[in-house]
Amino acid sequence: MEWTVGRWLAPGRVNLIGEHTDYNDGFVLPMALPMGVTCTAGVRTDGAVLVRSMQAPCDFVETTLDGLGATGWSDLPHWAHYPLGVIREFARRGHELPGVELELDGEVPMGAGLSSSAALSCSVAIALRDLYAPSVSAAEIIDIARTAENVYVGVPTGILDQSASILCTEGHVLFLDVRSGATEQIPFDLNKFGLDLLVFDTGSPHRLVDGEYAQRRVECAAAAEALGVPFLRDVRDFADVERLSDPLLRRRARHVVSENFRVLLVAEELREGFDPRSIGTTLTAGHVSLRDDYEVSTPALDVAVDTALSAGAYGARMVGGGFGGSVIALVEQEQTGRVTEAVREAFARSGFDVPRVFHAAPSAGAHRLE
Ligand code: GLA
User: Does 161 participate in catalysis according to the annotation?
Assistant: First the structure.
């Protein structure tokens, strides 16, 4: 392509532990996946904005920077809201943007809870940064990508996925304190211990995810208010949670408060160089909490977790927002075939679609390819 001036990659992620804690000002511990979204970008100087996705074979969606500022987004295809949202937000913040042409291509399965949308937004954001505003900080890139999803797609996500895609490094999990923005790269070398992290993509769609996700945020805010704290992150004592009179808010708060403790525990064990087998029970406890207290799991996710554990996994849990998506399982390398087969058979018996299975190695965050 004549207009090409570069190609960028932003990865998807799995979150080792720390689900639904980001919008409660808490802690998360994600790692980047080897697969991501590539953005091939070319400079334009005529104010035109052209975007195309190889996953939605069609011609370029064409608009202009001025056009993006006006209303009329409802006529645009859904996928295009992500890149165009990033472009619009980038320009809205005053960064010089004379026009751009983008081609997007992705390998992260969509709707699998592996952050395909953050990979998409982040690949565009870093391409724009490198082409037009190299001094923009990583924190602002993350904020631009998140704002694009919140405002122009209409999904009220926290900051986990975009932070993972931008900040993760190969061979590490990223410990992020969402409140302070402090980060720490913690080595996560499963191979050294003869272990593997398997990902089972259940292929079940994120049913009702938008509405239910937003609802969980509202419930957490209500629980924090009832406890007299700004965010559930500020609850230090489980006894406070148990004092909540509303049983639903009590369950939601119990998940968030205990999940923050689980993140701190796993981060500490890995930081200290413990055998990662030791984190397995904490991962599984995270799943039980998401299933029973936060109520975001599904029968397929539960079958994958229960079967992986019965087949010998040290720990297993759903990842991402829930209501479908993927499960991770920490397994002995020699057991990967056995665990995979067991989950496949259980899915067949339960009438679920054949899950897609791959192994996750902690990979590099977003970067330029060429
Ligand atoms: C989705 C959101 C994230 C986070 C997770 C749950 O992936 O995009 O911000 O809230 O769900 O941990």
Answer: yes
